[in-house]
Amino acid sequence: MCGIVGLFLKNRSLEPQLGGWLRDMLIGMTDRGPDSSGLAIYSSSAGEGRVKFTLSHHDRGYPWQALAIDLADALGATATIMSRANHAVVVTDGPEPEVDLWLRRNHPEVRIVAIGQRMEIFKDIGLPIEVSDRFGIAGMSGSHGIGHTRMATESAVTTEHAHPFNAGDDICLVHNGSLSNHNELRRWLRRRGMNFETDNDSEVAARYFAYRMSEGATLGEALEAGLSDLDGFYTFTVGTRDGFAVIRDGIAAKPAVLAETDDWVAMASEYRSLAHLPGVDGAVVWEPKPERVYTWHLENAA
Question: Would 207 be classed as within a structural domain?
Fold first, then answer.
């Protein structure tokens, strides 16, 4: 049993409220997962020719600024860094593959949590209120975000195994459920060049959808393909640079509820995480149907 939430703002003037609303939504799911928590926020763009790397280290005193200087010197690039607790967001104009390889070779003690133009991921061991406040989530602005609080059932309780899972530029996923064929799919994806950071079944789902999209599928098409290829029980919420999606398996054993107004779309494992949202009394509220893909997209997302 885990708790997942997502919030997509159709009214862009509300973006300064995103972090605070998401924080409260995730806190509402606390008793569904006491082990670890995390949130992905889609905020301002890194800028043309630049990319964001969210990094983590177990030590809150890690010398992030020195890492940014070393990276810029080694690659002849610019690099700015902002730290939040034991995470940091590096924005650089160094080529993404080169930056990724340099980090893995020269700073193996640092974990790459997320890569993208707009997405930043913050996750750690602890309850939603602890993790959210550790990273200052309430003060973050953005267009959409997803979150997760975990009750571990099949892999270790670590920061690395916490959700959301990033699996491609600005693509991330949160999952309530379990997959029965994740080992088979992991081998299948590895043969197609996909690498894995953990043994978590949810990471397999994230990388599966990223692979389908790398082949040219839209977000909706990738999720529809997963209905045939992913065995198990699941509710997924997926974020991309300009989109937000929800899907449940054919049995729909894992709970989910959606609500929509003219200003926003929200989802959660239970309605109590939506009850505080402004305007929810006038929202259209429904339970997502099994095997149906629900998607929303931003216009002109940079």
Answer: yes
Q: Is 215 exposed, middle or buried (0-12, 13-18, 19+ CB in 10 A)?
A: exposed
What distance in Å separates the CA atoms of residue 255 and residue 4, rounded to the nearest whole number?
Answer: 10
| 151 and 17 housed in the same domain | yes
- Which of the residues 1, 2, 41, 162 is marked catalytic? 2
Select from 158, 290, 168, 148 the least CA-distant residue to 233: 290
Q: What is the dihedral of CA 88, 208, 9, 16, to 10 degrees?
A: 0
* 2 catalytic residue (yes or no): yes
209 falls in which pLDDT band (50, 70, 90)? very high
Give the E-state strand segments of 138-215 in sequence order: 144-150, 165-168, 171-179
Q: Residue 59 corresponds to which tokens in the numbers above?
A: 């030590």
Judge if pTM exceeds 0.90: yes
Closest to 112 measured CA to CA, from 90, 133, 135: 90
- Intra-chain end-to-end CA distance of the chain, in Å: 35
Q: What is the pLDDT of residues 81-135, one digit of tens each?
A: 999 999 999 999 999 999 999 999 999 999 999 999 999 999 999 999 999 999 9
Dihedrals φ, ψ of 264, to 5°? -155, 165
Q: What pLDDT score was predicted for residue 161?
A: 82
The DSSP symbol for 216 reads: T
CATH number at residue 185: 3.60.20.10
Q: Examine the domain organization and report whether 139 and 269 are in the same domain.
A: yes
Same-domain check for residues 134 and 83: no
Furthest-apart CA atoms within the chain: distance in Å: 55
Cβ proximity of 193 and 210 under 8 Å: no
At 246-300, the pLDDT tens digits run: 999 999 989 999 999 999 999 999 999 999 999 999 999 999 999 999 999 987 6
